[in-house]
Amino acid sequence: MCFTVDRDSSIRLTDIGDAVREAWKKDKLDDAEEILSRHLIHHTGASHSLFANRALIRARLQHWDAALRDAETSIDIQPSVVARVAKGFALFGQEKYEYAVAAFNIALRECDVHDRDIVLLIKSIVLFEVGYHAESMAGIADLMEHCPAGVKSTCSSVQTEMYIRLATLATKKGDYDMALRSLSRAQSLGPFCVDPDLNIISLICGWRFDNLQFTIHRQNCEILFAAGRTNEALESLRTMGHDLGEDRTTRKDNTEWIITFTQQYLRSLESLGDNAIASQSYTEAVVRYSTALSMGPVSREGILIKRSKAYAALHMWDDALKDANEVINLNPLSPVGYERKHGVLQGMGRHDEAVRTFNGMRSILELSTNPQKQGEFVFLSDKIT
Q: What is the C-alpha to C-alpha distance for residues 165 and 83, in angstroms, rounded to an integer?
C-alpha cells in the first residue's frame, strides 16, 4: 500500500499498511508512529522506507532529534527523496537553516523532474511552519511565476493556506486589519480544487486543502466579530451559504461551526443590548435586540421582553406593546409577558386595559398547578399592586 501522486513519482511513501494509512490521514500521528515502530521491530528486509515514513511523522510531531535520526538511518540504508525531505524538515525544526536548505537541495537534485515543484512546495511549507514566513512566501511567489500551468492550481492552494495562517497569527496579535487583508489575498487566489499533488503534501506537512473557501469565510466572520464589527460579521455569515453553495455549508464540521458561531453571536448581541440599556442608550439597545431576533434565536421571549422595555423607555408604546403581546402568544403561561404588557398599557394611559391584563394574569395564576409559576405570579402581582 502506498500514498503517491497519480503518476510515476519519486515522492513515494511506501510500506504503509492500512492501519498506518488511516491513522496518518486522520492526524492520529502518535498511533501511526507506534505502528511503524512495531513494524520496524519485526521487519525483515529493506527498512529504509519505514524509517523515512517514521521520520516524517516524527517531524510532524516536532520530535526533531528523533526525526533526524530516522531520516539519516533511512539515507544510510538507501537514499530517497522522502528521507531527504524528512531530514530537511527536521533540520529546519532544529533551526539549522543552512543544513536544512542543503538537505532539500539534494532532494531536488535526486527527484524526478516533474516532482521538483512539489518538493519546492513542501520546502516552502516547512519553512513557513518553523517561522520563516517571508522566505516561504517569496519562494511560493517565485514558483508561481515559473511553474507549468498544471502546477499553478497546487501552488495557489498552498499560498492560500499560508495567507489563512497569516490571518490567524495577525488575529492573535489583535491586528484585525492585517488579518482581513491576508484573507482578502487568500480569497483572490480562488477558485480552489484538490488535486492529487495536494494529497501527498497534506500527508507530509499536515495541511488541509479541501475546505479552503469555507475556512476563508469562517475566519472572516470570526475576525470581524472579534474586531467589534458585528454588523459586517452578520452580513458575512448570511452570505456564506450563497457564496459557498449548499454542499459546503451542510458538511458536518461546517454546520457545527455555523451553529456555534451563531449562538456566540446571539449571546454577544444580547449582552451589547443589555449594556446599552444599563447606560440608557435605548436606541442602540433596540438595534442590538432586533438584530438578535432577526437571526431566529431558539428562545425569543427574553429578548422580546428586553426590547419591549427599551421601546417603552423611548416612548415607542405600540412597538413595546407588540413585543409584550408576542411574548404572551409564545408562552401564555409567562408571567413576565403579562407584567410587561401591564406596564406598557399603564404608560400609554390605557388603565382599564392594564387592569384587565392584571386580572387575566390572576386568572392564570388560579388555574396553574405549577408551584414555581404560582410563585412567579404572586411575586409579580405584589410588584404591580
A: 27
